[in-house]
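Reply to dn_fold:

You asked what the input looked like. This is it:
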Amino acid sequence: MAKITTSQEFTREEVGLALRNPGMPLEGLRYPITPIGMHYLLIHFDIPFLDPTTYELTIGGRVRDPLRLTLDELKARPMVTMPVMMECAGIGRAYLSPRPISAPWHNEAIGCAEWTGTPLRPILEEAGLLEDAVEILFTGHDRGIDQDVEQNYERSLPLDEALRDEVILAYGMNGGPLPLQHGSPLRLVVPEWYGMTSVKWLKSIRAISEPFEGVQQAVLYHYRQSEEDPGTPVTRKNPHALMVPPGIPNYLSRTRHVRVGPTLVEGRAWSGWGSVERVEFSSDGGRTWGEAELGEPVGHYAWVRWSYEWDVREPGEYELCVRATDAAGKTQAVDETEAWNVGGYGVNVVQRVPLSVS
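and this is what came back:
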């Protein structure tokens, strides 16, 4: 049996988080729209028990006309359906050394679903934002303790981001009702930003006149190089490309095995900073690169398929890599030291897939 070695052992608590929060098997990259059962989950506290028939969403704070909307009233509003690629801000954390102790993601904290709901902007306009409103605060029904503070999960968005036309209140997923574990009966979906922004199980929406300083906003989700560093907030998704590991796997190590000859390598790429302009593939650990072929994006806020015809002629050991570059000129980190930060956020290190050819 193959022996797996790591630089740090995972704690019992991290294993528990991994069991509660499944990721997407990378073979799921073959699907343009991720099946619900494959889409990643990150649930900070517990899944709250909410009755859709009595559910109400309150919109208040610095508004002229506070609102209370039932689920039926929300569904009666203009409806939109759009594919959105979602990625956890903690993706890749398990590759770092030293490793932040939290959900131990590798590359699987992803998914691209079709979300159905109603745009947020008209609701805020109907409520009438007052002139001193600077942010919109979203509070979920899920409650727990983090950083020794009891809290509901909540995050805010700057006014200009919350008023983007594509920000929606979603009550459907992949053509059906929103599943409980994905935020039923109602959740926020914020395209282009990391998943922590898309608050689930929405309880209230409030316009506020001062920047929100809650735990999930001011303490967590910052790029920091030391505990003393105030850092910068985690916002939009970094460019990222992932491949479907080709061939067949070893059960425990997941090392791949293929035969000599042509092999189609494929995957998906995305960025929150603009369209993906280039995807490159390497079969020698990143020493040399070839340009992959890009397909049509699944949607403006979704991911794009890429493929590369790899003709391997010699048996041996290989390390496959892939990296994306977006329209803003941002590209992926080559190794973990480039991506390291205290919280292990936004890690978009180049994927490396060990592979044996026979």
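The chain has two domains: 12-233, 240-357.
Hope that clears it up.
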